[in-house]
Amino acid sequence: MSSQASILQVSDLSPQMLQQVASWLAEADHVLITAGAGMSVDAGFDYTRSDQFVPRYPVLAARGPQCRYHVFGYAWASEAEQWGHIARHLEELRYAPPPNALPYVQLQALTAGKNRFVLTSNADDLFERSGFDAKHLWTRQGSYSRLQCFGACDAASTWLADEWVARAVPAVDLVSEELRDPTLIPHCPTCGGPAMLNVRGGDWFIDAPYLPQGERFGEWWSQAQGGQLLVLDVGSGFNTPSVVRWPAEQLAERHRQGRLVRVNREYPQVPAELGGRGLGLGLACSGGELWQALTAL
């Protein structure tokens, strides 16, 4: 099934559509949340906004990057510059509270009591940090909580980043935005080679820490075949549609009692293949707006 298919139904958050979502949620035995970058945006982490990036990283911004997305693939002048930025990036995105936790809190409350699983492309671990069950999470693109060997020397060459972040952040010179202590530049404990964030970005990505999550999702999916399924697809666009957007459509279509609600301000389209079964609904709003409206019912 392709997200490029014809639009089944797209609406803003009208009272009728809101009642439809509320009804489907109430009837669901199983809820699969498939979340893309839009969910992190709702929490205040927008990778496209210069007003969030430039004031925090003025030196780097003067060299070119104007938002978080611009740092992907950036040619660092030195390891001290690179790891100084990574330390502060992780401090902000992974270890500090989000600017707005309410969308996650409300979504958790709205789906509480359901047999629930979360499949997300976001690496900030905000679902787990907001109280969602870690055993019912699959972070398919990796996690900011881990570092790994850049050369992927071994499937076990990943390690937790929290201790390194705690030591590295105070060692960043905020005038130059560089890591002052070269001994804090991380290296693989197995081969001694350079390290990198344990997030999908190339052939070097080590997915071993997330394979058990995929196995648990397979078990959950088998258990969810009986009863009504609601797939809530929120904030998933076309940067990496094969990670959550397309799977959301495919899983809703394959389930004999599957329904799909897509929440996306820019790309709310739902495949026409769902139309004959009356199972798809696209809402041109943010997840935060929908959760707030449902909570107020």
Structure report:
There is one protein chain. By secondary structure, the chain is of the alpha/beta class. The chain has 2 domains: 10-42 and 100-141 and 208-296, Rossmann fold (3-Layer(aba) Sandwich); 50-97 and 146-199, no CATH class. The protein is built from 12 helices and 12 strands. The chain has helices at 15-27, 37-42, 50-53, 58-62, 68-71, 79-95, 102-111, 126-129, 162-168, 211-223, 245-254, 287-296; strands at residues 10-11, 30-35, 115-120, 137-139, 142-149, 158-160, 172-173, 178-179, 195-199, 229-234, 258-263, 280-283. The strands form 3 sheets. Strands 1-12-11-10-2-3-4 form a 7-stranded parallel β-sheet, sandwiched between helices. A 3-stranded antiparallel β-sheet has the order 6-5-9. Strands 7-8 form a two-stranded antiparallel sheet. The radius of gyration is 20 Å and the shape is globular. The protein starts with 9 loop residues before the first strand and ends with a helix.
Condensed summary:
By secondary structure, the protein is an alpha/beta fold. The chain contains 12 helices and 12 strands.
Question: Any chance you could write out the topology, listing elements then pairs?
Answer:
Layout: E1 10-11, H1 15-27, E2 30-35, H2 37-42, H3 50-53, H4 58-62, H5 68-71, H6 79-95, H7 102-111, E3 115-120, H8 126-129, E4 137-139, E5 142-149, E6 158-160, H9 162-168, E7 172-173, E8 178-179, E9 195-199, H10 211-223, E10 229-234, H11 245-254, E11 258-263, E12 280-283, H12 287-296
Parallel strand pairs: 1-12, 2-3, 2-10, 3-4, 10-11, 11-12
Antiparallel strand pairs: 5-6, 5-9, 7-8
Helix pairs in contact: 6-9, 7-12
